[in-house]
Each structure stands twice: as structure tokens, then as C-alpha cells.
Design brief:
D-amino Acid Aminotransferase, Chain A, domain 2, alpha+beta, homodimer, globular, D-amino Acid Aminotransferase, Chain A, domain 1, 9 helices, six-stranded antiparallel sheet, 14 strands, about 325 residues, about 30% strand
Amino acid sequence: MTVLVFLDPAYPQGRVADATAPTLMATDQGATRGDGIFDSMLAVNGKVRKLEAHLSRLVSSANIMELDIPGPDVWKAAITTALAEFRGTGTDGAGSAGAAAAAEQPHQDEAVVKLLATRGPEETKLPTCWIQVSAPSALGAQQRASGLKVMFLNRGYSSTVAQDAPWLLMGAKTLSYAVNMAALRHAHEHGNDDVIFTSSDGMVLEGPTSSVLMAHYEKGDDGTVTKRLITPQLDTGILPGTTQGALFRAAKEAGWELGYGPLVPEDLLDADAVWLISSIRLLAPVNELDGQAVGTAGVREQLTEELSALLAGIE
Amino acid sequence: MTVLVFLDPAYPQGRVADATAPTLMATDQGATRGDGIFDSMLAVNGKVRKLEAHLSRLVSSANIMELDIPGPDVWKAAITTALAEFRGTGTDGAGSAGAAAAAEQPHQDEAVVKLLATRGPEETKLPTCWIQVSAPSALGAQQRASGLKVMFLNRGYSSTVAQDAPWLLMGAKTLSYAVNMAALRHAHEHGNDDVIFTSSDGMVLEGPTSSVLMAHYEKGDDGTVTKRLITPQLDTGILPGTTQGALFRAAKEAGWELGYGPLVPEDLLDADAVWLISSIRLLAPVNELDGQAVGTAGVREQLTEELSALLAGIE
């Protein structure tokens, strides 16, 4: 089941739309030119995790794209409407039954909440903004549990290009995701689950839909344990990961040291653990990189468990 | 007025749709991920120019994107329907009046015919394919007549990356055009009309929606004239220009010499004329490049006239 809610000045709480019917104009520049932005969030029991961080990134993407979108409060109202519809507690009458069903379920109910904004139809050029709520795929949970086979792919850009070339839209989460999707197809065709992009000058960047994390674990002669969590630095033009950011704050509070790249592929191969982290799939351990085993057995599992617990506590 | 015709197995001649109503699913991966392809063609008096070249490029884009789209005959049938609708000679009853109006016009009637194909809605993953016909903008004719101020912008990719990184989709005309649009916005904000992309290693590539052409003109002591038309080579990952290709063939028959890059920005600044060429705007002379005057006065105008005449003869 998919729920759609459009941002519409005539509907301050958002306009609920039929997800089984056409709702976009064929001339919408989102569809004809990938000219728009998005962000994806996880809602647990009807509450969006890291809502402010996602809305802040959406605004940042809009600014980079020079896209004039409604403010955070308008999005929040529509998100509330969309989640109520999805959980069956909306105003359409299906409410009580849905809510009862949800209450009976022993596990938490999770939803993927996607925010989208395009430059709108060619005729009006008024942005089209909507929210899509759907169930998470089973694949995410499976990959969290079993880990990933990952390959490095060249993203084609130098790690320094973002600073001089704002028209390349680095750091914006745009709808122009064809290369990200093609990279994933390429990985699947070569027996891998996912990709870590490298820059043309050989630096580690990010996954097509995730951030890269690695850890070092050291136990001193006196039994002191040092744990260090490292991610590539943002000035390479990668997307600021909201989950990576939140986990870094939580890990720091829990006594971890933090580090920011530059990282090269060899750094990942030498790490005690490597993960791809994102808002929906959360923390997925990397088992293999370009066919080579990754991480230190035992340590990797322990750190994954520890960080996953920290992540579960993030609101 | 915009005409929409969808490719639909239930309608062998194409399904005409209301362009003023929503016709796309909000979950279509064209809209949510720029995951699709397109091509733009010019129709004059109801006949598409270079139809086979455009359909062939569409198939090539689909192959690079691993997108399973209907064959050329299906597209052709729908194009015929769309052009008939646009020219008022369709089956919807508005036919005779529209045709009469068109016949009364002293100038040729021109139409932009856009072919689009996406990876389809997330639920079905069946490609969504449609044709959009609309009138050309007045800006194109104006720019052909008055010429362009153009700036160089770094496309971020090396000129050799295309050969090793098929996942970057170089040479495919994908719907992920956000960078192309951002480059044009950047140019407009800096007082320019258009952009010529360069590679990170300094080679001339293409415009965001056009191919680059330059010419050398030499008159020997014996009065012999040598005219040489040059364009960047395709292995830089640029899009094969259907209009550039057709003009090259016509120019060769007319006695021109042909050349293919590598070209650097200085080559363009030293040329006797530089143009951006594309299917809709056709041949637009470049007056200025990064603020420097381009071309040899007199020669530039003569060559533009000569090549435009050749272009007008291309079917």
C-alpha cells in the first residue's frame, strides 16, 4: 500500500491522492528532466526519525537547485496526514480498523516516508511537491542481518570538483538518479549487492544510496579499548548522511573517537569493520569489497551490534 | 498547445491523452529517479526530420540504460497520431478547421516532437513511453538570428572516463538532466545564453542541449577556398548529435573537409566560426566565449548562411 499526499495551498494539511491513479502531469520537469529533489526518511510507530535533519537537508538540496519549495511546517503537516493515512488512523473512515490491526502487531510498524519536489510542469513552472509513504522492503532487513558484497566503482568526478563547480549539484539529493541506479544494476550484474563510489583521484566517496563508515578497534596492553569511527569528509562533494551524522553524535557520547577522511579503498580493506549506512536500511555490514573479505572476525560483529543499538535509540 | 500520445499495447496507433490532466503515476521511476531516456526532434509540415537517426539514438540510449522499450514501428505509429492531432488533422473532429488554418499560414508549420521512456512505476516496472508534441519556442529562432554568448563550464568528467565506466551512462540521453539545467541557469545568471562543457582534462565536449561545431576557412593565393568543419570526437563520452551528423554528411557532399577533435577551448577561440547545433534550435552562431569575441567577421556570417542552407535541405 502506498499513500500519496500532495502539498497544495488549498489543503493546509496536504491533499490526499489516490496512489493507484495518475497524479503527475506528463510535462512535469521532474519526469522530463529529473529536475527536482527528494529525501527519504524512516517512520517508526508513526513518528519520523531525524525529521529535522531530513527537512534541513531537503531545504539545502532546494537551495543548491534554486528550487522554491514550501517551508518545513507545510511539509510537517502533510507528513502527519500521510502517516495517519498509512497507519489507518486518517479521516477516511478506515481509521479504527487499521489502528486496531497495528496495535495487535507485536513488532514496531515501520514506514518509508519520501519527500519529493520537482520544478513543476513546463507550463506553470510551479513546483510539484508530494509525500509518498510505503512499507520498507524486506531486502533491507535481510541485508542488515547478512551483510553486503560491495564493489568499488569510479564516480568519474575528482574529489575536489564540488568546491569549484556548483552547477554539478554535488551535495544535493536530486531526482537525477539514473547514474546511481545504473551503478547498482552494474553491481548486481557482477554478483554484488551494492557499490562504493570512488573519485577519479582514488578517494572513497559514498554509496549510490548510502554513506560509508569504517571502524578501528584497539585493545591496549592495559585492557583499554579504543574505538574509532571514520567516514569520508564532505568536501569531496558527497551527500551529508543524516544517519551517519546522528550515529556519530551518539557514538561520541558512548566514548567512541570520530574521524573524517580522506579515505582510500585500502583504508576500508584494512579496517576492523566497514558499513553502508542510510535512513531506511540503517547499518548494513560490508562482508566483501571487490571480492576481498573485510573486517576482523568477532570485532566486526561486536561493533555492528553496538552501533545498531546506538542507532535504535536515535529519534 | 501540447499533444500527448502514450504507447499502449491496447492502442496500436498510440493512445491520445489529455495534456491538461495528470497522466503519470507519482511512483513512476522517471519522476522519482530521472530513470529514463528521451529524444527531441523537429517536425516540419508534419514530417519529422532525421526520424531514423533519432529513433536509432533512442534505441541506443535504451540499450545503455538496459531499458526494454517498444520497437521503432510502434513509436512511428504513435508519432504519426501525435502529429495529426497537433496539426488538427486527427480523428477528434477538430481536423478540418486546424488543417485549413495550417494551410493558410504562409510559413512552414514546425513542431517539437519529444519521445520519452521511463522505467515505469515502482509497482509494475513496465516502461512508460509517450510522445509530446508542442510548438517550438520563439527563443530558438531569435538565437539563430542574433547568435549566442556562451561560457565554458567544467563537466567534471575526464575525456577518457566514458570508455571504462558504462555506469556513468555517457552517450545516453537520459532523463537525469538536472546538471544540464543547472549549468544553463548558472550561465544565465552570469549573463550568458548557453554553455560549452569542458572535461576535467580541458577538452571541449558539448553543450547541455547541443553539439559544438567550429570551422576554418582558408583562401589560397590561387583563389582556392578550403572550408573545414570540426566537432569533438565521440569517445569523450558526448552525445552523438543527429543534426551534427546530418550536417557533416551534407557539408562533405558540398565540398567541405571534415575533422574530429580532440579540441581545446583555444581551438574554438582561434576558429573562423563556432556554432552550437541541435535538432530544434538548429545552427546557432556563437558570438562570444567567456567574454571573448569569436570568429572572423564576414566569414562567420557567410559560413553560417551556407551551413544553414545545407541544414534546411536535410530531411
